[in-house]
Amino acid sequence: MQPNASRFRKDSARTAAASRLGEAMALLLMADRGFIYWDHLPSLWTRKMFPTGHTESVRVPPSVTTTTLPSREPDFIFEQPSTGNIGLAEAKGHIVTAGNSPDYKSDLAGALGQVLPWTHCLNPSPTENYAISSYYQEANATDPTLIAFTDPPPRKEADPEWSVSYTPDDIRRGNYGAWLIGMGLQQTGQALRSRDDVDPSERKLAILDVQGEDFAIAINRFLCPCLFTHPFSRLTTDFDGGWETVRNWFQMGVFAVPIFGIAVNVLRSIEEAIAEPKGSALQRSRYVSRRANFSKVKSTELLPGGFAGSIFPDGTLFGFLDRSSPLWQTEKQQSFKLAEDPQRGIR
Predict the structure, then answer these.
(1) For the chain, give me the number of helices (H) and strands (E)?
(2) Crossing angle, helix 41-49 and helix 186-194, to 10 degrees?
(3) Which pick of 28, 187, 253, 291 has the fewest CB atoms within 10 Å?
(4) At a CB cut-off of 8 Å and minimum separation 6, what does 79 contact?
(5) Would strands 333-338 and 201-210 be described as parallel, antiparallel, or unpaired?
């Protein structure tokens, strides 16, 4: 029994990892096709179906319950700012054993079955629908990783008696709200996503300069287990009193810390969006890199100064900052008016 239980846990972990990788690959594929703002569709649906605190938010008829919805929903809703197109996408990820061929046609058909029924549940109706499935081989396999997708033209649906209304600004709020939560700014992210009325307070965030572009960053300890048990693991999100703590981490053997970040000019627009929850400040903004070929430059050339990671086309940043970064010596910061978090520190 014990070996079988161990095998089951291992297979379950592999399946879950493949699923998460599938979602990540889907996000990158959609970004490559110009859909750079995204939100988790079930989360967007819940926020619009059960609005908090704003009378202008959509009201769903009492007869509409979750039993009237399609039984399964797609993962993501995207906005393509260059065209204004809205797309839905369902992502799948699979581990393929050596010698076996993936059944991608069946997988894509199943994914489309989750996407297409939802096109008439949203107003405006999405203009593009994607089913994306990725397949991963064992480390010693000779076959490469495969990413398959299909994007059939939208089909004409009968107009429903009801639909949930949303705007592209709702998608952008969900996009940046999730990233702020990843930065540890829970209240700010939630207020941005849900259009909550809050009293903004001044927060200081560390500023990372990536070849002339400034990004406000925060450490994400949940991606670095050593920070849970480290004897110096007390650091506030906004680095108040935390600089010496980071230096202590490095002295104790921590080589690099995981960070999330948002371009400063984008975070200024987020300030406006938080101050005016009924407005559409994010819809008026768009991140534009100062580098004409930002995505074409090799990471070793692009990201000096102790940072290794990615900068995405919406102006968000993710990666690791090591002990060689000049940030730990300069302690460069800026102040932002964001929502107050009840817990200011990481304990």
Answers:
(1) 10, 15
(2) 70
(3) 253
(4) 35, 36, 37, 38, 85, 86, 168, 171, 172
(5) antiparallel
Distance CA 279, CA 267 (A): 16
Structure tokens at 53: 């605190």
Judged by DSSP in three states, 172 sits in helix
Scanning the chain, the segments in alpha helix (DSSP H) are 2-32, 41-49, 104-115, 168-182, 186-194, 226-229, 243-251, 264-275, 299-302, 327-330
Report the alpha-carbon distance of residue 54 to residue 52 in Å, rounded.
6
Before 3, cis peptide (omega within 30)?
no
CB atoms within 10 A of CB 193: 22
Q: Distance from first CA to last CA of the chain, Å, rounded?
A: 40
- Tell me whether strands 213-219 and 235-236 are parallel, antiparallel or unpaired: unpaired
Residue 225 CA to residue 79 CA, distance in Å, equals 34
Query: Residue 142: which residues within 8 A CB-CB, separation 6 or more?
Result: none
Interhelix angle 264-275/186-194, rounded to 10 degrees, is 60
Tell whether the torsion through CA atoms of 230, 234, 237 and 239 is positive or negative: negative
For residue 165, which of 124, 205, 204 has the smallest C-alpha distance? 124
